[in-house]
Amino acid sequence: MSLPKVKVCCISSLSEAQMAREAGADYLGLVSEMPSGPGVISLTEIKDIVAGLPSETKTILLTSKLTSDEIIAQHNTVKTWGIQLVDTLPPTELLKLKKARRTTALIQVIHVRDNSSLKEAQAYQDNVDFLLLDSGNPEAKIKTLGGTGATHDWGISREICQGSELPVFLAGGLNPENISDAITHVKPSGVDLCSGVRSGGYLDKNKLQQFMNTISNLSIQ
Questions:
Q1: What span, in angstroms and rounded, lies between the C-alpha atoms of 170 and 151?
Q2: Considering just the CA atoms, what is the radius of gyration of the chain in Å?
Q3: What integer pLDDT is reported at residue 144 of this predicted model?
Q4: Predicted local confidence at residue 56, as pLDDT
């Protein structure tokens, strides 16, 4: 099994984006309006960061919108490589989005809370390009849709990875101290990090490099 790809999320500035790229990140996550959580920046800021990066950079817009029209309008502004859906769109809206953005990678977040997530993951196999397993709670009074800094049941995540035909990213509370265990246990296609490589809300170059070094030194049997 090859080592997982790395997505650095909650990028808040061009300098953070450049730092993540220089450290070896494969994907950069840019967070638009959310009901809660860290890293939110305006569409204008996202647009400017994307424009300031090499065209081949795999930038990803995180959106909490629930209609294809709203998401397409956001994407028309920022022009990212991919779109990460942090909530659950109605099936008809997801299909409309997929048809309208055939060349844009679609990443569906599944907030792993119990075994129902296994069935949820299977339902997306033909409708998106990637799955991302996180630790939010879309049913909370104020939805938490990412950036919680909390881990979830990696046993469930492992089952999802084993049963998925899609690449699966693992998110939720990953940091330099637990990433080795996370990868060894879950065996995801990629990992997604935010709070675990930040200090005072800002991307921490030393933590990020420690994280990347740990991954690069892993040997998965």
A1: 10
A2: 16
A3: 82
A4: 96
